[in-house]
Amino acid sequence: xxxxxxxxxxxxxxxxxxxxxxxxxxxxxxxxxxxxxxxxxxxxxxxxxxxxxxxxxxxxxxxxxxxxxxxxxxxxxxxxxxxxxxxxxxxxxxxxxxxxxxxxxxxxxxxxxxxxxxxxxxxxxxxxxxxxxxxxxxxxxxxxxxxxxxxxxxxxxxxxxxxxxxxxxxxxxxxxxxxxxxxxxxxxxxxxxxxxxxxxxxxxxxxxxxxxxxxxxxxxxxxxxxxxxxxxxxxxxxxxxxxxxxxxxxxxxxxxxxxxxxxxxxxxxxxxxxxxxxxxxxxxxxxxxxxxxxxxxxxxxxxxxxxxxxxxxxxxxxxxxxxxxxxxxxxxxxxxxxxxxxxxxxxxxxxxxxxxxxxxxxxxxxxxx
Length: 369
Description:
- There is one protein chain.
- The chain is mostly helical.
- Helix content is about 75%, strand content about 0%.
- It contains 17 helices and no strands.
- The chain has helices at about 5-20, 30-50, 60-80, 85, 90-100, 105-110, 110-115, 120-150, 160-175, 175-190, 200-210, 210-220, 225-255, 260-270, 275-290, 300-320, 330-369.
- Helix 2 (about 30-50) runs parallel beside helix 10, helix 8 (about 120-150) packs parallel to helix 15 and helix 13 packs across helix 16.
- About 40% of the residues are buried.
């Protein structure tokens, strides 16, 4: 068994442990305590280190731009296509999907396999591509979340000055936003992570180390899957994966590449699992809506999406690398795209029909009784 596969199994095992441990963390207050630890300490530390270790060169700017382009295209497709009536899901769950489906978490689901199968060169390119993804999940996603918050809470929009004040306060009060601004200022001044004394770096490193196990355990603890949610989530995951293959194939047609490791990188990177970082923005909105009956997002549903996305993406990436040179041909990439898009439609149609049959039988039983 390769080291990448072993690492992936260990990550999935943490989700399983969290799921099995969920009965020990029953109350919402206990789960909220773990979430605060992630969002206020572990996640900011991880983002801070990642931003300050970016070695950006102007001639490679096309790589993060292409990655950001993927995020934006996926967001527009999910946001603009009339998919919510098809699935008949609440608007807060659909907003949650729009936040999560375009995001990528290559660090957890993609980087280990790139390193194992392709080496340091493609891994460095993947890390650079993740810069564009970070712009989307950290900045653009936050803007989208706050926009929906103000649309969903009209009383905040009546006074423009109050709206700006609330937005500034929410920005200042979030540790994630503070570390992003600090890191960008340091990068602008030419300062990197090594500018800090070693004892500070060690403390931040140790906080960052908590990130992965805490997030995966939290996902497992928060899983509350139902049949309706499973069919919705996997329909969207099939759709997301099919569009990702389509974009990868189109990119290889527009910019032909002969190097197989680079081709596989272009194919596997968009297949990364959904990112946890949009959940930080949803949590910030949830904090503002603590006393509101109507919520902008469904955070429990978000955890279920993340829990399903991780193994789904890992299986995709493993299959791509295990297939050898199969994905070196753009025709095969387009075929995979078509198959997954068909699966998305079939899954939606079949599951919707089964759901209707179940509801009809339930109504008949209730009438008979």
